[in-house]
Structure formats: C-alpha cells, structure tokens
Amino acid sequence: MRFNLPVATIVLLAPGLIFAAPTNSILTARAYAAYVDALQSLNMTPHDAGFDKDLARDQRFVLQRVRRMLRNPLDLTQLADEIRTLALQDEWTACWTEASRHLEVKCPVSRVPSERAIEIDSLQGLPPELTEFYSALATAAEIVTNAASGLSAGDKAYAAASFFGNMYLLEDKPSTRNIMRKFGFAEALLDEVIAENSIIDPEPIAIRFMDIAENISPAAFIEAAKLLTESVEKLASRMGEMSWPTNRIQIETAHGSIAIGTKGRDVYEEAYLAIIDPGGDDTYTGQAGVANGMAGSPVSVIVDRAGNDGYFGKDLLGPGSALFGVQVSLDMNGDDNYSADYSGQGAAAFGCALVDDLAGRDVYRAHAFAQGAGYRGVGILRDHKGNDLYDLGFAGQAYSGLSGIGFLFDRSGNDRYIAGGRRPDYDRNDKRYLSTAQGFSTGMRPFAGGGIAALVDLAGNDTYEADVYGQGVGYWYSVGILLDLAGEDTYQLYQYGQGSGIHLSLGLLSDEGGNDFYSGYVLSQGSAHDYAVGILADHAGTDTYTADHNAQGRAIHNAFALLLEYGGNDAYFARQSDLAQGIGNDGHFREYGSLAILLDLGGKDQYSCGAENGARMQRPDFGIVYDQVLP
Fold this sequence. Notes:
The protein is of the alpha/beta class. It is built from 12 helices and 45 strands.
C-alpha cells in the first residue's frame, strides 16, 4: 500500500542527511535566514528540501556532486559560486584544474616538456624563442596520442559518427550525410548509425557507445590542454620581442607543421600543429585550428597577436574544435569574425578545446556544438573585451553532454546571446525551436548522466534570447548555470530555463545587479520538474517577471523550486497565477509532493497571485510567497 505523505515526513524516513547553510556570494546569510523562516511558515525545516530526487541509481557517468546536490538543493549555489570565482580569475590554466575537479577525474600533473634536443636541433628555421614552445607541443601531442591509443580506429569512428549523426539529424538531413561523408565517415557506418535509430530496444546500442566513451578518460586530454595553455601564455608574453619574416615560414616536425606568419594578411587552410602570427587581417579556414585525432592531427594551436581576423569553418569541425584531440587558440587583439557552418569556437568531443579572445568587438556564429561546448571532454570560450554577438542554432553558448564541461566566460561589454531557429522542437511543439544553450547540460536519458555547463557574463547590459531549453537549465543528471554579474539585462525564453531543473537535474540563473526583465512562457524563472532543482536569484534592481504558467517558483512532480529576489520594487506577472508564484504540488500518484518558494527580501512589489508586501502567503501543496520588507 502507498501513501501520499507530506514532504516533512519523507525526510524523517531518510536519516543520515547533513544540512548546512551553504552561504556564499549567491546565497547570503540574510537570504538563508529568510529561507529558513519561510520554511517555518510551512511547518518545515531545511531538512525537508532533501526529499529523495535521486532515483535512477544505476546510471553511468553520473557526477557524485550532482547526486549530493539533488539531496541538498542549496548546495547548487556553492557550485555556482565556485564557477563565478573561476570566471573572475586571470590565470589561464585554472580552467583546466577546475574542469578536472568538476568532472571528478584526477587533477592533471603539470608535466615538464622534454628538451628533445636532437629533434629541435634538426628543425630548420625554428627560431630560438620557439624551442621551449615546440617542446611543449611535442609533449602534448604524445599525451593526446596515448590517451586514445586503447581504442581501435573503428571504435573511434563509430563514437564520432554516432555523436555527430545525432547532433545534426543524420537520419533526416541529406546535408548532414554529405558533410559527414566529406569528413571521412564510410557510407556503411553512416547507414549503421541511421539504422540504430529505428531499433526498438536502444539499450544495447547505448551500452556499446558508453563502453567506448568509458575508455576515453578526459584526464589525459586535460593534462595536455593545461600544458599547451601554459606554453601559449609564455609565448604570447614574448611575441613583442620576436623578429618576424616578410614571407610565411613553414617548419616540418615529427608531430606536424608549424607555420610562422607575417604582419600582413595570411591565409591558413591546412592542418597545423601550430600557427603563430604577429598581425594582419588573417583568415583561418579548412583544417586550420582543428585538432582531429582521427585524421592524425591530435594537437592544434593558434596564437594570433593582432588584426581583424576571420575564423571560418566550412566543414564538420571548424577552427577552435577538437575530436580525440586538444585545440588551443589565442587571439590577442582585433575585431574578429568567427563563423562555423557546423562545430567550432571552443568545442570538444572526446578531447579539450579553448578559444581565448582578449580584445575587440567580436562576432561568433555557428550551427551547433560551439561557443563553449564539451562532450566527454571540455570546451571553453573566453572573451575579454568588447560588445560581442553570439549567434547559435543549438547546443552551445555553454553546453555540455555526456560527462562534459562547457564554459563560456565573457568579461565585459554589452553582449547579445541568441540561440534557436535551427532545429524544431518536434517532441513538444514543432513551431518552436530547441536552443539547449546559455548554460545547458544534458545526459543520455535514461542511461547516463551529463556534466556541467556555465555561461558567466561579468559586466554590461546584456540580452539573452532562447526558445526551448536555455539560460541555466539541466536535464538528466546534469547542471546548467547562467551567471550575470552586472548590468541591466534582458532574458527571453519560451520553455525550460531561466534557472530550471528538468528530470533529475539542476538549473540556476543568478543576476547580481541592474533593472532586469525576465520573459518566459512555461517552466521558467526558478522552476523544476520531475525530481529536479531549479533556482533563480536576482540580487538588486527593479525587476520584472512575466510568464504564462508553471513559472516563478513552481515545482511539479517531486521537485524543489526557489525564486530568490534580494530587493527592489519588483513585479511578478503570470497569466495563470494559480499555476505560478510559489506553487508546489501534492505528488498525485507518487509518494510525496514538491516544495516551491518565492522569496522577496525588500522593496514594494506586485504579484498577480494577490500576495502583498511584507506578508506570507501560503500557496497550494507545499508552496509559499514570502515577502519581506526591510525596516
């Protein structure tokens, strides 16, 4: 016999849980005290947020921290605070150290590059300033090559074809078949991947894929990426002292070619171990800036000192991407144009990729799997200055899949992030488009967990536009985070996002300043669905929230939802107010319900549900609107 028990009772049946106040820059001590008081109004304690939300325990690739946060929802703010601290750091290599920690793999040891004196002496035309740099390149190439040496060429091809085939709808898109054929996938393999989509029982296929992925540890790729990033940083600091040729130089090595450009306009199209360019409006296209371990180019580095450069990807992998490899790009100055017909711009599948742009008004455009995207690996895009445009179809702008990390850090400028318009959301509404972006992570439901994705924008009046899945949302044992640290910002979304967790996952959006505007339709603005956690925290300003239903602190199907507003004269509008603003549910046929809180800590506020300033309004089935007026 089953009983519908209140949430508080469920916690009494789950001994051994430890709940501490995870106060930090996102969740302050004052906010936590108000949270505790709001729970007391419901005759609850913080223990009651720890009801069981981790039910699929036989999953593979699930991060243990994700499991812990599902039981301790406010710990999500601690993870977000750690990523916030990382985005504020100037040290380049910290991203790799933190990525390995978040993926729960052994932190890579900084391997000292071997001197390789005999080989270096035999390299004709290698400037003395590049001796140490080449040694790091060669060491990294050996690390990466060894990292995937346990897999057969067939296993690698199958894993890559399955990943890209599903990403770009191989079954339905002739253009995808053409581009994958051009990339080098055999016709028989493409037919195999297509046929798998019609098999009734997908479990054997999933197990085959996961078995291959399990033999590709991110640790070695992260070690090589850290080594390359350190060497690029040293080289960049010395480039102003180097003498540059009037004609481009190409040096052949055992691990690939090194190109040394001029201060004029250079065009790079081939696969290079490294490209070092002092200036000029340069063009990178073809295989330049691509680390493709399947094609014998597991390492790729670009260091460009100046110029308004173009990075144009016409193939499946574009500049700034890695597949069974490691790619590091540094652009030090100029208004640059990044465009990828498919993947690129800090995207890695089974590897690591970093694109770091230090200055300029830049434009980033891509089809999908781009702009800080990682799948069984780490993809990072960092932009330091300028009013930038990020335009994407889907799966990017901080995206991660199976055991992946996707980071996009923008440090200044009035930026615009656009995601959608490419892939219709056939599962729910084919008139809407999947975004899966702007801090989105997903696992392989129902077989395996995902990772962590975080978009962090440090300053500026920014605009975020997405359709379905975006702006701090996780799906299936994953974590999606969007952090905006300053500015008057606009967030637009249709469904699933703005701090939402979906199906055993966690999502968070935190905005630290400015008069902001949030627009969503359903399951947005601090909402959660199906054993999940969703949090939206806004720290200052006069803010406006608009939605239709299942929004603004709304939890359904055994979930936890929190909308935390620190202050300002705010307005909360929902067309169906009986399904928004601090609404939980009783669990229906499940054993227990959901917990939902809308917590406003100051200002003269408006609520379409009828809540009043300075009052506590209990909402149906374990929900509350708690409005606090400061003296």
